[in-house]
Each structure stands twice: as C-alpha cells, then as structure tokens.
Amino acid sequence: MTACSSVKMPISLRGNRKNRKNSENSGLHDRLAAGDFDREAALLRARVEARAQDPRQVGALVLGAQLFGPADPRGRPAEGFAATVAKLTLADVKRLAPAVLDPRFATIVLAGDFEPAALRAALERRFGAWKAAASPPPAAPVALAGAREPRLVLVDRPGAPQTLVLAGRPVPPLDGVPRAARRLANAALGGGFTSRLNQNLREKHGYSYGANSRIRELSGQPTLIVATSVQTEVTGAALGEIRAELEGLSRTGVGDEEAVKARETERSDVAEALATSASLADALAAAVLAGRPASALADDMAALDATAPAAARAAATGGAFAPGSMTVVLVGDRKAVLPQLERAGWPAGVLSAVKLCHSVSTSGPSAMR
After folding, report:
1. Which long-range contacts (CB under 8 A, 24 or more apart) does 21-29 make?
2. Which residues contact 345 (CB under 8 A, 6 or more apart)?
3. What is the pLDDT along the chain (369 residues), one digit of tens a residue?
C-alpha cells in the first residue's frame, strides 16, 4: 500500500470492529452472506422508492441527468433506479466487489494528534493485504466547461404547496486565484444570508425562506447550482427575480466592498472547517472527492488572500453566471406553475414537462434566456 505524506490533524476512523477487520482482507467479497445481501437490498429498495417523495432528491436527480446525460456517471444516481436495483443479485455483488472495493480508488483521511511512523505502520497492518483488482481502473469523465443544451424542465408534483427551483450548469475546473475569484463571485450571488439571491427572494419579496448558490465539486467537475423553494403561486415571479440577479451579476460584476465581504465569508467557511476533528476530516474528504490535493484548505486560504476585487469582478462577468447558460429544474404543481411561466413570457418550446418518477424529457432550447 502506498502511504501518503504525513499531515498532523484530527482522526476519525469510523466503522465497527467487524467492518475494520473485514477491510484487512482482500477476500471480502467471498464472505458476503445471503442474509446480509437480502437485508441491504431491501434497505436500498426502500431508499430508492422513498426518493420520489423528496422534491430535493428528485430535483437533484433530474438536474444531473439534464446537465450530463443519463449515460454519464455524473448524470445518474449512485444508488441506481428502482428498475436496476430490483435486478441486483448476490452473484452480481460478489462479481463487482473487487472492482468497486479497489485501493486505487481509495484515500484514507485521518485527522488527529498522531506519530506519522506509528500511524503508517498501523495502516499497513490493517490495510496492507488490500490488493488492486486485475483490471485497470476506468477513465474519469472529461470535465465539462458548459451546459450541453440548457433547458427548463418541470417535474409535476400535483398539489405541492411549494416549487423547488434548481438552476445549474457545469463550469470549468480552476485553481489558485481564478478559482478563488469565482468563489467570491458566487458568495456575492448566493453564498450567505446577505447575498443577492437571499436578500431578494427572502427579505425583499418574501417568496422563500431562503435562497443560495454554490459551486459543487465532485471528481474534478465543478457545477454551479442555484437553489431555493418558493410558494407555488409566486413561482413565475421568483424565476424572474433569479434571472434578474444572474443578469445583474453577469453584466456589472461584484463591487469592491461586496468582494471584500465575500472574501471574509469564504475565509470564515475555511476557518470553520478547521474548528473540530470531524469538520476537518469532512473538509479533507470533500477535497479528495473533488479531485483536489491534501493541501486544498491551505491553498484556498492563500488564494483568497491573493485575490483582488477586480479578479472577482472579472469572474462574475466572464460568462459562468450568465442566465442563458443555465438549465432550470422545477419540481412543483404543473397545473399551477405552467400558466405563470406562460404569463411571464417564457419562450414557447423551452418547457419539458415530466411526471414524478418517470423518465426525463430532454427537448427544448435555453431555459433562462
């Protein structure tokens, strides 16, 4: 097993003794019992079936499929669909286990007060027998710099008192000051209570209890996502305000004072991640899943300190936040929402209406133009 460079930070080795013992052996899949499989399969089926009742999960699933396509692993849920889960057998799991439980895909995150040499020896004793599968690991999907074909999708949830609103697009991977500058622009848009989106939708209009934006990073693919839930009767008006905020940010950028405030918000978020052992381990694990190095938190602080307001302004006006590049997903009452979109002047042909739990239509031009 190849050891990583030592880091003096807090540890959380989660899991029970049985699980840790099993991880010492490369033959884990040989000990998978039928009873264990039946129990876990039933739990998985229940989670997948319950997913349709949660607008947030439905919206995230539909947005991923729209942005990346169902053939892309980024465009489908890791837990699968009801139809695929129902077909799983114990033989399937045993056959796939060596490829899924492959040390080439694994990173052990530790945070705590430890002696690096002793820790390395302990890890070798527990995980040294963990061998890679014979087949080479699959290539990671190429990071996308923009949307495939932006559109608006309405998922029908009859009688819903609120409409979940998600707007998103892939953005290119960045490092250093350019990455920090884009984070500052996003912080100004929807990164905190005083951000533009929240002040507009919650404080000014009372459409929502809160609105936010974030740049989610996973496996080297950053995705810009705007999210809120609004009262059903103001869905069209709220979409208009979201579009106006995106247009304003893309056109005029971020002011100097706003950029400084955004930087303090981002610095505070990094500092909060260092506050406890658990939060630090979570932050480091998130960096690993995003495809970033172990030095990510320190790199972020240095880049934030080096980012001038002008750089944040350039990131805001560089096209990443342009509303015409965004795909919009609405989860709500189609009968109540559709007339609002029509009255608000949304162009004909941009709407792909889908029923909850059914396949997603992918027709239509840009949603936010």
Report:
1. 23/126, 23/127, 23/130, 24/125, 24/126, 24/127, 24/129, 24/130, 25/129, 25/130, 26/129, 26/130, 26/131, 28/97, 28/101, 29/93, 29/94, 29/97, 29/98, 29/101
2. none
3. 333 333 333 333 333 333 344 444 445 556 789 999 999 999 999 999 999 999 999 999 999 999 999 889 999 998 999 999 999 999 999 988 888 888 888 899 999 898 999 999 999 999 988 888 778 777 888 999 987 778 899 999 999 999 999 999 999 999 999 999 999 999 999 999 999 999 999 999 999 999 999 999 988 999 999 999 999 999 999 999 999 999 999 999 999 999 999 999 999 998 998 899 999 999 999 999 998 998 999 999 999 999 999 999 999 999 999 999 999 999 999 999 999 998 887 765 555 656 544 433 333 333 444
Specify whether the CB–CB gap between 338 and 158 falls below 8 A: no
Supply the pTM of this predicted model: 0.86
Q: What pairs with residue 353 in β-bridges?
A: 154
Residue among 272, 250, 243, 240 at smallest CA distance from 188: 250
CATH assignment of 152-355, among 3.40.50.10320, 3.30.300.30, 3.30.565.10, 3.30.830.10: 3.30.830.10
| 323 within 8 A of 368, measured Cβ to Cβ | yes
- What is the enclosing helix (H) or strand (E) of 359? none
Q: Which residues on neighbouring strands pair with residue 351, listed in sequence order?
A: 152
The domain segmentation of the chain, as residue ranges, is: 17-127, 152-355
